[in-house]
Amino acid sequence: MVIKYSINIYEMRVSRIATKFKLLIILVLVCLAIWNIYMTAWHSHKWKLNTTPSNQMQINRKAHVRNHRDSWKTRYQFKHRNIRDGTVHQYQAMCNKGKMVLSQLSYKLYQLIDTTMNPKDCSNARYLLCEWPFLGGLGSLIHQISYCFSIAVATRRVLLLKIKYNLYPESWEHYLLQPSVKCWDFQIRNYTDWFQMENGVESDVQVVRLLLTDDIEIRTNRTWPKPIPEKFIDSSAFKDKIAQHHQSPALWGIGQLMAYFFQPSPSYSQRLDDIKKAIGFTHPIIGVHIRRGDKAFEAEPTPTYKYIEAIESYMIQMGYRTSSRKLPSIFIASDERDLIFEISNQYTQYNFISTPDVFSKKHLDLIIFDILLLKECDYFIGTFSSNVGRLVYELQQSRYEDASCLAKSLDHHYRTIYCCGITQVEMKYFEFQPTCSFQTTKQQYDLIESCNNVSEFDP
Description:
It contains 16 helices and eleven strands.
């Protein structure tokens, strides 16, 4: 009798456990279904076409910020514009303060690039398909593509990209404009490899593929096509004209290419404006980029105090410590987010601002936002061992006549590095150290100060 009673109790306990387990499974399945529905609705709402008139959007946005100023999360719930709205490259006009030579050359180069990338008839245009099998960080990717972009412009071909970079869950045009906003979806049926042709520069083949490779044996046995900056050097008349107004014609040329290529999509431009308003991104402002993460395997990390010393040195040099002028804010960017908060808490004498995490869905958002904001700073402090640091310096060259002395690298001199060992052939064209005295830095800063009061510049 006792044994039978014990068996009954055991069976009841097993039955209860099985019932609870079934209920747990059902609960998990229900939660997963709800999560799936939520995420689908979130993405559908977040990126759906916004038909609200732009002026009404501005009014609504201002009211939204004003009513929720004390709430961090609700403060940043801005609407995004449709990424297909107005996807055209814009001329990044430079402020010249009466000097028109480089502005005119810059505008002519922009027109050359734009007409090359967006021909009248996409079906009969010539194309350069850029492809590479290896991956890297965003800065490395942009410099690899910029080499192909330069070759495409030099050979008057539309650039098509075959990217293996992880942009999931978005596409390239979600972040940046396609090199060609008109012919970017051209359907390739066949192509000819660049190195299989006798003269890739003058070939009439419709689609030519340029495969970048990190294979040492392959890349050293090939004659790579020259990018546009080298063509500037080869053209002595053009070089001399630029050299009268810029310390490095090659750097100036790269800056113009980058200005066209690295343009955010309309939705990203809108979000960038929202960020600037939210964090108080106003002039005067100093940009600081601190590279950490896996960069330690390539270059020795620069101590944090070196950046602070450079900030203070610039403030003293520009007379901020001996005048009543408004002190610059410090926009700080880093792939090590905790470091930003540590610096802000340790050096409280400075007004540090940064891109809030709430604006991004993934790390790639933060990198792109940081680059776009760093290039708008009056002065940049970083390291040129970093692709991001060099990219920001290059983008600066499109904003002013000569921005050579508007950045300070705390490790290497500036070098143009694309990929694949290409730049090791004639390094003299690619290494540059500006001559920066107090007078030249002050003159360039005075130019920036006057330009910051102007919203648009004529080409």
